[in-house]
Protein 1
Amino acid sequence: MKGAAYVKRLELLFGAYKHMNAFMSCGVQEFRIISADEKRYRAEFEVTKDMVNPIGSLHGGCSATLLDVGCAASAFIRGKVVLSINQEVTVVSGAKLGDTVYMDIELIRLGKTQCYTRGEIVKKADQKMVAFGTCTYTVPPTRVLPESAHSLISQLTQIQ
């Protein structure tokens, strides 16, 4: 599969997330997929008022959620639903309301029962790292997934 197909799959997935609920949309409606290949992708977005803490900086919990949703997407676009079992996130600097940041996501390993990923959020203007982390997921048996997950996976895997 070529990079363009991964980009299309990510755009379809994040488009579907917009309509699920406020938690799953958590800023992904702002994502612009910059590049994608079989192991990595980059998404760019602006920090919005829904993402900041009372002092106007990207909230650490929002950074963790963005990394979790972003890392899980690296498995989902390959036809696997994953569920979080461990996440470690470190916030090292701030990003202010209106800043453009990018998120680099790497799929380290996607196996039959577990998935390992890592990601970074970086300010575009000065290349300062905002947050980084790793996410570990379990891959549940497909028989326990709801029909909506099967339907979305089917749509994603049709994009070649």
Protein 2
Amino acid sequence: DQTRVLLCAGATKDMGKMLGGEEEKDPDAQKKEEERQEALRQQEEERKAKHARMEAEREKVRQQIRDKYGLKKKEEKEAEEKAALEQPCEGSLTRPKKAIPAGCGDEEEEEEESILDTVLKYLPGPLQDMFKK
């Protein structure tokens, strides 16, 4: 019953404001608003601190898992890949010989000749004579 009375009292006070009645001026309204803002700021700081602690605990667990299974952090992995890509390219304008697949490179001319000979075998006689000259 007391809650109903309080609700009705609050509702009638608000109804008077909605109907165009004079709002009651609270002399301490500015002070209360500042206190409310300060309380909100304090709650936000506590929330951020709590989340920072939770994230630190999670990171500790993640690191234990990485250590157990020999995994690397995403940032470490990307840094290693970037370093590996930059390393062979530093002093050279051409790609390293390791990167050239087997069968390419110096032996190229011999392969072209054998391919050309193979193609010539299937051409009609007059065309073969033209290419051999």
Protein 3
Amino acid sequence: MGKAQKYVLLGDATYPLQDWILKPYQEDETLTQRQLQFNYRLKRAHSVIENAFLRLKARWQILLKCDDCSLELLPTLVLACCILHNVCEAHDNPFNEEWLEGTEPTELPKPCQPAPAAMEDGRAEQVRELMCQYFESCGEG
């Protein structure tokens, strides 16, 4: 869309809208078709991410036991598993769907209450609107 953007994290409606947290528009009868499409695409992206983490945990089951690992080590452990996964894929050692048996999707912790409006960043609405326009320009999918 002609404007460089930073990376963003995907959040749900309970997170505050920030220029680095992309969240859906609040679902109500006033949403435009474009905003509904944006929300739909955000949900699809979120499900892809959940599936990727499920597959990562199925291949590297040490990630299922991270509760007994130090917080300082956790990012390195996850990164190592991602790198090893890519090495396996590059050397034709594909993911085995049977590994998913016994690996349950886990609900990630999230805030219980929606963030107060005061926590929202006014500039973030411009980022969301730009992304909304971009999704619209991409057509169906």
